[in-house]
Amino acid sequence: MRIRLFSAELGLSGALFPISSQKKINPPAPDFLDEVECLFNNKKSENSIPFIREFETIESYRDLATYPLLFMTASEIARFYLNNGSHLLDPGPQFKLLRSSLDSFRRARVPNVVLLKVYYCFARNEGLPVRESWLFGLPKPLYNDVVTILGQPVDQANIEQSKLNDIMESLKIWMNGETELHHR
Fold first, then answer.
1. Mean of the per-residue pLDDT values of the chain
2. Element (H, E) at 171
């Protein structure tokens, strides 16, 4: 089974996960969004995909699957990383952001606040002028809402869903039109 991994060292990369047809007692494959530590077999060539020899689950985010809205929002973050995580010069800050965002879902009142913070911080970490080009260009009421949201912990952020939808749509349009970041 081919899986995609995002690491602080390599960014987005692929690996092959062995599935045994024998009925040996093997640990189950990692769940979607799990943080794992892997040992790889040596690659046969520079272009080959490594096999995972063994792994250990460091943090499981299985609980996100029990709440559909959390799971769908976390899936959007995963898709965003799949679209944008393979060409990062320094994936370390983006890995830290991903880990922090998954932990934040456990405290967030409004899951899309986590998504907004991920998009904003990802663009900022990549050196894109998200503050200067996007944030400062927002109408004053939306600007004030975004500044408040970005300055608060996710468990304190509270905003009307319609305003948050307008903010998210504006940021997605900016990312798709003004940057090389791809949202869907």
1. 91
2. helix 161-178
